[in-house]
Structures are given as C-alpha cells and as structure tokens.
Design brief:
The chain has a six-stranded mixed β-sheet with strand order 6-7-8-5-10-13, with helices on one face. The protein has a three-stranded mixed β-sheet with strand order 9-11-12. The protein is built from six helices and 13 strands. About 25% of the residues lie in helices and about 20% in strands. The termini are far apart. With about 300 residues, the chain is an alpha/beta fold.
C-alpha cells in the first residue's frame, strides 16, 4: 500500500476548490489534480509490473483553474454543444447508462422510460473561469494509493456512482472490482493505481433507525443526535471525505430524536436537531481527522430527485 502524501498549502487550497466543484456538478466532475506536484517521486513498479508514465499537473492545468481567482459556487449551467466544445470543457456525456454497470435502477433515466438524452449535455461553468477537462487516467493517477469516501443519502450515492462511471473505463477489467456490503459500496481500481472510491449510506450523518442502506424506514424517522462513532469507525482512515446531509431532514418540520439517553425520545424542531447533529459531526472531525493528511468537504442543501 502506498502511503498517502501530504499536500502543500497551495495544493490544499486547490484541492478545496476542485472538490467543491463536485458539490455543484450533478455529473460529479471532480478533478483532484492536486495530490501531486511536478517534483514528487513516482513509483516505478507495482506488483513487479512497470507502471504507466506518471501524469502530473501541467502549468496549463494550474493556470486554467485558480482557486484564488475563481469561485466554483458562482456560475451557471450551459449547454455543451459538441460542435462548440472549447479546450477547457469536456465533451458530453462522459459516460452513458450502457457504458457503466454500476448505476442503481432509480437513476437510470432512459431505462426507466425517458425518451431523450438532452439532459446529459449540460455542464457547470463557473463565472470566472473554465473547469479543467476531466481525464479519467489523470484522476486515478493523482489519487493513487488513496481512499476517497462519499458519505450521505441517495443524493451523495449518485455523486459516487457518477465518479465511478467516469473513471471505470480507464481501468482494465481484471483490475477493477465493485462490492456492495451495506452500508457501503466500494469500487477498487487496482493494478498500478491502488485507488478506492467508496460510498457510505448515512442519511443523517449521525446514527438513526434509517442506517441500513437497503432496508430502512422512510416515513418513520428517529435520529440519535449525539451518536456517530459506529459510522466514524469506517470513515476515520479515508484520505478524502465528502459529506452530505439535507433532504432526509426535510420530511416534516419536526423530527423525533434522542440526545443523551437513547430512551429519552422527544420531538425536535428540524432546524434545531440539524444544528445539534452537525455539532456532533464537527466534534468527531476535530477528534479523529488529521488535517495534514486528510481532506474533508461538506454539501448541505441539495435538490430532491423524486
């Protein structure tokens, strides 16, 4: 196993901006081209096989997306016309339902009867710059030897599946695997990359009676506002953690929850319960995450997909 490398301060800022882009993009166009520099050593052989030529950031990559000059949260969706694709925008779509076997049936629009494919041709354009083009091989190379974990509800699951679909074609069939062990889904790109992309079902981030990924209650909800350690035992060794929690809190204006004793069940205003849960999560981060080795990102408000 390759040990994670520390990010330099400038690269950490670029990482924040790059991963922030995935929180905007429905297609999960996350380009983590910030985990290496042009001066890093590169592993020459893995499993006694020559590795491919290293794919490092070029000066053009760094100039095209500067977090100091571009806020990825401000922008608009633009139509991606293949006849007018610029050098800094990726042709669409980056994958199709037929090309990716890892999509759940709820999110395969065309298999569920949608007749058109035009919805796949929109891309997010920040107001002050262009996002770098997505390259699957570069994505895998810059997160070589790392665990990237997406945590949340089905909105975050879609982000995870989209990322897997964008990179899987670059991995030889015999070197990739996909395992479903609730509450996790794990995609591994082996061989020369040794990359793990993971999804962890935790719709409230803190513990609840809805924590089984496939056999959970939807209408009856009970949240343990100060309990998170059972989830956190799986999260703590990830190199990159992307959290999301919002839709499941908005079922009703009040929610049943516990705090302190698991027997002390009472009705909370949703905003109050959400705040307490986020404080529990933040305290867990402070106690368990090493900011010199790990990166954490959070997405709150998100669209429904009913």
């Amino acid at each position: 196993m390759i040990q994670p490398t520390l990010l330099q301060p400038a690269d950490r800022r670029l990482a924040a901006a790059a991963i922030s882009s995935i929180l905007i993009l429905g297609s999960a166009r996350l380009l983590l081209d910030i985990f290496k520099t042009n001066h890093q050593p590169h592993l020459s052989t893995i499993h006694n096989k020559p590795s491919p030529q290293p794919i490092f950031l070029s000066p053009a990559d760094r100039r095209s997306f500067s977090p100091a000059k571009c806020n990825p949260f401000e922008g608009q969706w633009v139509w991606n016309d293949d006849h007018n694709v610029t050098s800094s925008s990726s042709p669409s779509p980056l994958y199709t339902e037929d090309s990716c076997p890892y999509l759940v049936k709820q999110t395969t629009c065309q298999r569920n009867g949608r007749p058109d494919g035009a919805y796949q041709r929109w891309r997010w354009k920040p107001a002050g710059c262009e996002l770098p083009p997505f390259e699957a091989a570069k994505m895998l190379d810059v997160v070589r030897g790392k665990r990237v974990m997406f945590v949340g509800d089905s909105v975050m699951r879609s982000q995870f599946e989209s990322m897997v679909c964008m990179v899987q074609a670059a991995v030889p069939r015999g070197a990739r695997s996909f395992d479903r062990v609730p509450p996790r889904k794990v995609f591994r790109a082996g061989g020369e990359w040794d990359v793990t992309l993971e999804y962890y079902w935790a719709p409230f981030i803190v513990e609840s009676i809805s924590d089984h990924a496939t056999n959970h209650t939807v209408h009856k909800r009970l949240v343990s506002l100060d309990a998170i350690d059972k989830h956190g035992a799986t999260w703590k060794e990830a190199d990159v953690l992307v959290f999301e929690s919002y839709v499941w809190w908005m079922h009703k204006p009040f929610i049943n929850a516990t705090y302190g004793s698991p027997e002390n069940i009472r009705e909370y205003d949703v905003a109050t319960a959400y705040k307490v849960a986020m404080e529990t999560w933040a305290n867990w981060l402070e106690a368990n995450i090493n900011p010199r080795r790990q990166s954490v990102f959070f997405m709150s408000m998100s669209p429904t997909h009913l």
